[in-house]
């Protein structure tokens, strides 16, 4: 199991094609970032409002510094796309099939409101597909890790050390379905879609934990008909895909990443999507079509 390593002790020149080594790096950096976040969460903080009206705190910035420093030591040749750098106007040129997507604190609204549904997110995208991802919920003591064909859930101790690790996978669609939806960003379109699933159990959850609930077999469907960014979703999407799930556009195509500058898109915004455990959303796709 991976422990926290100071960035000056992290491995250098990690091979980006070595899934095990990359995930070990992601897990160590996520734990370090989570420690920085929880120090600020427990000490108290103020928040600012970014131009897009979303909140940002020193915890966002501190966690991103930890993650980027480590990634740029160990995976120096891979382009980093990080939320707070983008917000500051640092937009990288994508010249490779591999990119790193970082959301150092997803669910800042949950963090500001002192709820536990916030996460650290690090993902490696290859040719538009999120193949490796780590989602860490420090206030919940849970870390999720995903790569092609495998996903795991790791219990984290209060002193930020990994404890038990178990493999997770999506479940067959339950009756009634359990649908997870955003706690802070629900839209009328999302509510209309959910209403089509009569009798479904609805669970409101913040951040990328929604993907992880599907991946661990605790939910069946996550519709998102509103604005999200690639760094919000890539790590959780990688965990879900590793667990046997999928994330699809409303036309049925897979959600893809590294879209900035393609087809006239000005930023890294995602289209509307549905994450599910494969057969669970068929009814919804028929309605959308």
TrEMBL record:
Q: Where in the cell is it found?
A: Cell inner membrane
Write out the catalysed reaction. adenosine 3',5'-bisphosphate + H2O = AMP + phosphate
Annotated Mg(2+) 1 binding lies at 83, 103, 105-106, 232
What residues does substrate bind to? Answer: 83, 105-108, 232
Q: Which cofactor does it need?
A: Mg(2+)
Q: Does the keyword S-adenosyl-L-methionine apply?
A: no
> Which EC number applies?
3.1.3.7
* Annotated TM spans: none
The UniProt entry's GO biological process terms, in alphabetical order, are: 3'-phosphoadenosine 5'-phosphosulfate metabolic process; phosphatidylinositol phosphate biosynthetic process; sulfate assimilation
Q: Which UniProt keywords apply?
A: Cell inner membrane, Cell membrane, Hydrolase, Magnesium, Membrane, Metal-binding
Q: Where does Mg(2+) 2 bind?
A: 103, 106, 232
Q: How does it sit in the membrane?
A: Peripheral membrane protein
State one Pfam family annotation: Inositol_P
GO molecular function term, any single one? 3'(2'),5'-bisphosphate nucleotidase activity
The main location is membrane
User: Would you tell me the Gene Ontology cellular component terms?
Assistant: plasma membrane
Chain's role: Converts adenosine-3',5'-bisphosphate (PAP) to AMP.
Protein family per UniProt: Belongs to the inositol monophosphatase superfamily. CysQ family.
What is the protein name given in its UniProt record? 3'(2'),5'-bisphosphate nucleotidase CysQ
- Source organism per entry reads Allomesorhizobium camelthorni
